[in-house]
Amino acid sequence: MKAVAYNIKEYEKESLAVANGKAHDLTLISNPLNSNTIHYAYGKEVVVVSEDDLLDGKLLEELRHIGVQKIVTRSIATDHIDLSRAYDLGIQIANTPYADRTPKGIAEQTIRNLNLWGDGKCVGGACCCAKECEIVNGKLRYDGAK
């Protein structure tokens, strides 16, 4: 999958690179996601954010307009993302809910989500979508708006 990860701290870079293992076209940038940095998401299917990135309805609309279909937050909390608006726009959301909160653990959870989505599968306990996904002809189908 083509993804860009925003708000990457220096201590996160190696963990994400190792966890990714060149499986995905993953761009790591230190800038937060906002209207001034959204251009880094052009041509990407997924954006990866931190809990410091505030994704309100307007920013979600901009992301969807440029083709972003999925968002992974490197946090347990999702209150920094307007989940209702994401659902309306057909954007799937995943978090990193597992107990290992080390940079390595969060990186592995983030890449696991990308791997599952890339294989057309549900991210299971990391799913934060407002509506259930379903499997149609062996592939995951998200029933959000298009």
Q: What count of structural domains?
A: 1
Number of strands: 7
CATH topology: Rossmann fold
Q: Superfamily at the CATH H level?
A: NAD(P)-binding Rossmann-like Domain
Instruction: Describe the sheet with the most strands.
Output: 5 strands, parallel
Order of helices and strands: EHEEHEHEHEE
The overall average pLDDT, rounded, is: 90
Cα-based radius of gyration, to the nearest Å: 14 Å
What form results from the Cα inertia axes?
Answer: globular
What is the architecture at the second tier of CATH? 3-Layer(aba) Sandwich
Structural overview:
The protein is an alpha/beta fold and 146 residues long. The chain has a single domain (2-141), classed as Rossmann fold (3-Layer(aba) Sandwich), CATH 3.40.50.720. Helix content is 29%, strand content 17%. A five-stranded parallel sheet has the order 2-1-3-4-5, with helices on both faces. A two-stranded antiparallel sheet has the order 6-7. Helix 1 (10-20) crosses helix 4 (103-118). The chain starts with a strand and ends in a 5-residue tail after the last strand.
